[in-house]
């Protein structure tokens, strides 16, 4: 150990110092433990007559980043106007910062404020030569850190690819089990029966059309234990619904900086849901996700901003004002940016074009025939949903009966003294746990059936809604009209004298023809449906 005093003392005044200790992790760090570092640092301070003001300790923290709470606290105190210490003692420079860049930045800042960093195991002098030697040592430490990180990453990748689980906590629905791997003991994932049933119920509810918030309420009302033990919430549910591990496929390395693509391992663990169910849920989630609009689209005074597209080049039509300010029009984005010759699209008179689109929405979409079709489809959807829930309920009842038969068989075996109670206890507890989950699911489905029963919608009821929509198109502000239109109009494609209007109501889409009249007014004519 180097015993040279590297902190300049002024007169006989006792120097005040802080000591800093850090280890990366129990599994990876080959240096001294925290307690050993602290002991050595205290001995060094006592031997050199330093007064230790405070000890800063970061356990299981990486040295490649400054996201260490105690380290940041120490730096902040050293930067204070009335700094409490004049030096920082470390076991090695790699304990202070393993990145050369971070070390230079922090040491320079500390040096300007009169605070030195001293390694008790590596020579250091506050001279150009000393700083050069210090830099060489730190560069070697940084190389060691990077090399160790790559070796650890390769080892982890190999373990995961062989089906071993290396994280501390298993995903919800699974538990960790020990397995033999030659002379070593490894960890793999196995199903947690009770939690697996919860995961299945979450996926089944989602497929049945139940919203995330309703599922969260149901789980909390039934006091179902959550992954973190703090109650269920939307983010936790989304994690379960989007994690491919429940299909038995591990996706590892999504956050790794050194890996170009995540590693996918099929059949990594027992599946809780099948791939088809998982894919259907992903489509449902994507369909429910709110559409994000650019602020220009929502604040523009042009009614059809963000909805119209040029059929020639595919660019959006943008609303513009003439230089005089008296006229406004829609023009292809290519023409607007690149000028004449960029596209063959025509200019559309904005007020006339918007008026015609609104008129066709009224007459071709919000009409009596479409209303009758919509009523029929809505009622069919309601009935189909009820049938699906009834089928699920019958399936759950059959499972309950099966579990009850199994329990009765176990109880009979105990009564006939064919098996000892202690031998059958784990199986009985497992079946009871499954039974509790199934009974909760049965109660939930029965509640949903009672709540979701809705009398068929009559044309008169829907007519009242349509009248409100028509009134909105007549009297609403531009923002209100745009919000309403964006609710069901997907896109309006204009090419020469034709326009195709695509909308998302559960009806057949209509194709409209756009022709230019002698007075320059554009008109639509319906020439067929598809």
Task: Give a short overview.
The protein is α/β, with parallel strands linked by helices and 530 residues long. It has four domains: 16-154, Resolvase, N-terminal catalytic domain (Rossmann fold, 3-Layer(aba) Sandwich), CATH 3.40.50; 174-287, Alpha-Beta Complex (Hect, E3 ligase catalytic domain fold); 295-367 and 463-529, no CATH class; 380-458.
Fold and architecture overview:
This protein has 530 residues and is an alpha/beta fold. The protein folds into 4 domains: 16-154, Resolvase, N-terminal catalytic domain (Rossmann fold), CATH 3.40.50; 174-287, Hect, E3 ligase catalytic domain fold, CATH 3.90.1750.20; 295-367 and 463-529, no CATH class; 380-458. It is built from 16 helices and 16 strands. It has a 5-stranded mixed sheet, covered by helices on one side. A 4-stranded parallel sheet has the order 2-1-3-4, sandwiched between helices. Helix 6 packs parallel to helix 14, helix 13 (368-415) packs antiparallel against helix 14 (421-452) and helix 13 crosses helix 15. The longest helix has 48 residues, at 368-415. The radius of gyration is 35 Å and the shape is flat. Residues 1-9, 26-30 and 506-530 have low confidence and may be disordered.
